[in-house]
Specification:
The protein is built from twelve helices and eleven strands. By secondary structure, it is α/β, with parallel strands linked by helices. The strands form four sheets. A three-stranded mixed β-sheet has the order 1-3-2. The two termini are 26 Å apart.
């Protein structure tokens, strides 16, 4: 088992936060692994005295208010949903979960149908896959991308998109260190021009349909591959480690990148838009949370920087800890 660096990450994150809170949340079992799904109900926390500004405590006004959170079907989304849920439980809400729903179209429809109240979504994914924005028109600035997503979520679905996380988790193009050496150690995606026709690329079926993902390697970079292999997103690292493919499309916050010493090519043509996370929820759920409940979400994600999110992902994917336990530890350590 690798040595965790949470202590150093905590200090780095807190140094950048001017008004961090301090509280501990007991881990609550939602699932046995990042690949399982849960719809267990978790009771509201016992009310505690009011505390200094920034510290989350149970509010009696939230008693009896139930929020059902969903997530997409990969580790990071599940961890973030657990962080949101445990923090809301601490604030006095009754929290229910339906995790590991699927990709964005499935999760978004669950909000539309009222099956869940909300889930964590990525701004770039929302804009291109759900809100009808051409990838070439997506703002490269993170704040501008969020504001565009917020506006379109409201006009198209009537949803509320809460303020985004500090970290952005972009798609990327990666390979093993050995394969990079065989190819002459390319540094950028453009460096694969003239070589890609001899390479096999693996990605999810959805990724091959999206211009801001594998489809963009053809449209934006002009790359043609020897073979395209459709895989489950959970296989994105093992597929190159087992030499079933030469290239893969990992997330930039994947802890496995460093652990496996994978080589990530620079997106020199800015194919990938910003992918900060926004908690997307129905207007009814937003009203139920109210300003105080929405502030809880903003507070607990202040420490979610790129290195911190990568560490949390690693604890689940590499060390096989439970997402809900990792979320609880994050809340205790960072706030």
């Amino acid at each position: 088992m690798r040595t965790h660096e949470s202590g150093r990450l905590v200090q780095a994150a807190l140094a950048a936060i001017t008004a961090a809170a301090a509280f501990g949340v007991t881990a609550c079992g939602s699932d046995d692994s990042a690949s399982s799904s849960s719809s267990a109900e978790k009771p509201a926390a016992t009310s505690t005295p009011a505390a200094e500004s920034g510290k989350i405590t149970a509010d009696s006004a939230n008693k009896g208010k139930s929020i059902k959170l969903g997530s997409k079907n990969f580790t990071e989304s599940i961890i973030i949903a657990d962080i949101y849920g445990q923090a809301l439980q601490k604030a006095g809400f009754t929290v229910k979960y339906d995790l590991n729903l699927g990709l964005e179209d499935v999760a978004n429809k669950a909000v539309e149908d009222g099956d869940i109240d909300g889930y964590p979504e990525y701004t770039g994914t929302a804009l291109t896959a759900l809100l009808g924005v051409d990838p070439s028109d997506v703002p490269k600035d993170e704040d501008a991308a969020y504001q565009e997503a917020k506006k379109l979520y409201k006009s198209k679905f009537g949803f509320t998109a809460l303020p985004q996380t500090p970290f952005t988790d972009s798609n990327s193009l990666g390979m093993t260190k050995q394969k990079a050496a065989e190819l002459g150690n390319p540094k950028t995606i453009s460096d694969l021009k003239g070589k890609s026709q001899n390479l096999t690329i693996a990605a999810s079926a959805e990724c091959f349909k999206r211009t801001d993902c594998a489809l963009g390697f053809r449209k934006v970079y002009g790359l043609k591959f020897k073979k395209e292999i459709k895989i489950d997103v959970a296989q994105r690292h093992e597929v190159i480690l087992k030499k079933k493919a030469d290239l893969t499309v990992p997330f930039t916050t994947d802890g496995a990148i460093a652990a496996n010493k994978e080589v990530i090519l620079k997106d020199d043509k800015q194919l990938f838009p910003p992918y900060n996370v926004t908690f997307v929820l129905s207007q009814k759920a937003a009203d139920k949370l109210g300003p105080a409940g929405q502030k809880v979400i903003e507070t607990v994600q202040k420490g979610l920087t790129t290195p911190v999110m990568s560490e949390l992902n690693s604890r689940v994917d590499l060390d096989k800890e439970k997402p809900e336990d990792v979320a609880a530890e994050y809340l205790k350590d960072y706030l």
